[in-house]
Design a protein that fits this description.
By secondary structure, the protein is an all-alpha fold. The protein contains 14 helices and no strands. The mean pLDDT is about 85.
């Protein structure tokens, strides 16, 4: 290689290095807000909570005494913890199927060509953009025993007033509040339905399939990845239920957490009470870490079990190997 060729090669390599450095710098500059936010708002709180879970810190004392796995052992043997987990599981068993099936059913109706279809879609999605606090307080007023509109309607038919916000009936109100925002899932399902190729339905009709058979063998497999996504995200969201259960408490202010009816004392209510009502920061952090691991296991199992029935137009395991 001549001296001139070596010089040109060196300049070309230097330009590529400079361009690569600038490209990397631009990349890290764009993602730096996300990286900083992840470290400060996710990784650091998780690590700090993990450390606190091995202590008996009360949130006030300057010292944090190390007690090892004592908090975890107490949480796993506490009947109240298991009772709150059972209520949380029951809530998920009720909400998740109703949300998925109800959202799909409404999406199928709104996908039909009818008059004022855009208006109906807007009305269905509108509750999803209402702030959860406002929606919960509104439903709390509607279900009030003495002045609520629900008991007012029942009185028109001669029925006695129902104490909706006490006893086991408050669980029914919690279910209603959580189903109120079903419009978000409807919108996702509607987008998935409109993405199903029309030629598949035409082929099914030519083969003699009726509407139910076309839905069973064409529509459902085509939108199955979207349904799996909704099952996972809805399950995680329901398991972390906190604000609606707290706001349906008959008390207000700091006393609300200890006045939550037994039927609505889901796991996150129990954790919040341990933190701010009983000042057991170490124990509550251990509860949260156990809950995190439980949700992680549920998510992985859902992926494993649900993934076997999901139809992908492109195999995700082979997509990265193409080309």
């Amino acid at each position: 290689m001549t001296t001139q060729s070596q010089a040109r090669y060196s300049r070309s390599r230097s330009r590529r290095s400079t361009t690569g450095f600038r490209g990397s710098g631009a990349f890290y500059a764009f993602v730096s807000p996300w990286l900083i936010g992840t470290v400060l708002l996710t990784l650091f709180p998780l690590g700090y909570a993990l450390w606190i879970s091995f202590t008996n810190w009360d949130g006030i004392a300057p010292s944090q005494n190390w007690i090892g796995l004592k908090n975890y052992g107490e949480a796993l043997s506490d009947p109240q913890t298991w009772a709150s987990l059972q209520r949380t599981g029951l809530l998920a068993i009720v909400i998740v199927p109703l949300t998925i099936c109800g959202g799909l059913g409404l999406a199928l109706l709104l996908n039909e060509k009818v008059h004022f279809r855009a208006g109906f879609r807007m009305l269905v999605y509108l509750p999803a953009i209402v702030p959860p606090v406002a929606a919960t307080l509104t439903w709390k007023l509607l279900f009030d025993r003495d002045s609520g509109a629900i008991n007012g309607v029942l009185a028109l038919f001669g029925a006695d007033a129902v104490s909706w916000l006490t006893g086991n009936m408050v669980f029914v109100v919690l279910v209603v509040v959580m189903l109120w925002g079903i419009g978000g899932g409807v919108l996702i399902n509607l987008a998935a339905l409109q993405d199903v190729p029309a030629e598949l339905h035409e082929a099914a009709r030519l083969d003699g399939a009726n509407a139910f058979m076309a839905f069973r063998h064409v529509t459902l497999p085509s939108i199955s990845p979207i349904l799996l996504f909704q099952v996972i995200t809805t399950t995680i969201g329901v398991l972390q239920t906190f604000v609606p259960a707290l706001l349906l408490s008959p008390a207000t202010g700091p006393a609300a957490i200890t006045a939550v009816p037994e039927a609505n004392r889901v796991f996150m209510i129990d954790v919040y009470a341990q933190y701010f009502a009983y000042s057991r920061y170490g124990y509550a952090s251990a509860m949260l870490w156990l809950f995190f691991l439980a949700i992680l296991v549920i998510t992985v199992l859902t992926f494993k079990i649900g993934g076997r029935t999901v139809f992908y137009a492109v195999d995700p395991s082979k997509e990265g190997k193409q080309g």
